């Protein structure tokens, strides 16, 4: 999509601070990190969120990228959290599928921030 920021970053039309890349996905540091390590894993093709029809190889690449990002950023040993916001109730801001990988400190108990 022409006007999609994550399409541009994932395909190097706009450069970013990359952590990992393969044929299907790109991972780069979040511009407004909410933890010492905050990386976004983004498919190179445009999908809105996990409710789209996403090919199996892309889903597998996202799963593999989580492991790669955790190892490369050194959060694999102490632990990390993986989040993907989908739609309005999750407050998905960027409408291009992305997975947040957060770590580098204790992230708190429970899944939900205070509402
Ligand atoms: P969402 O709320 O859609 O799950 O999260 C979108 C995330 O993308 C936010 O954490 C925000 O900081 C990040 N973000 C938005 N625009 C950019 C950008 O241009 N570059 C980078 N690196 N991160 C971005
Ligand atoms: Zn896009």
Characterization of the model:
This protein has 115 residues and is an alpha+beta fold. The protein is built from two helices and five strands. A five-stranded antiparallel β-sheet has the order 1-2-3-5-4. The chain is globular and about 40 Å long. The N and C termini lie far apart (33 Å). The protein binds guanosine-5'-monophosphate and zinc ion. Guanosine-5'-monophosphate binds next to strand 2.
Pick out its properties:
115 residues; alpha+beta; five-stranded antiparallel beta sheet; 5 strands; globular; binds guanosine-5'-monophosphate; binds zinc ion
Series of secondary-structure elements, N-terminal to C-terminal: HEEEHEE
The major sheet is characterized as: 5 strands, antiparallel
Enumerate how many helices there are, as a single number: 2
Helix percent reads 10-25%
Percentage of β-strand residues: 15-25%
Write the layout of secondary structure elements.
Layout: H1 5-10, E1 18-21, E2 25-29, E3 37-43, H2 56-73, E4 80-83, E5 99-103
Antiparallel strand pairs: 1-2, 2-3, 3-5, 4-5
The site of zinc ion (ZN) has 6 residues, from helix 1.
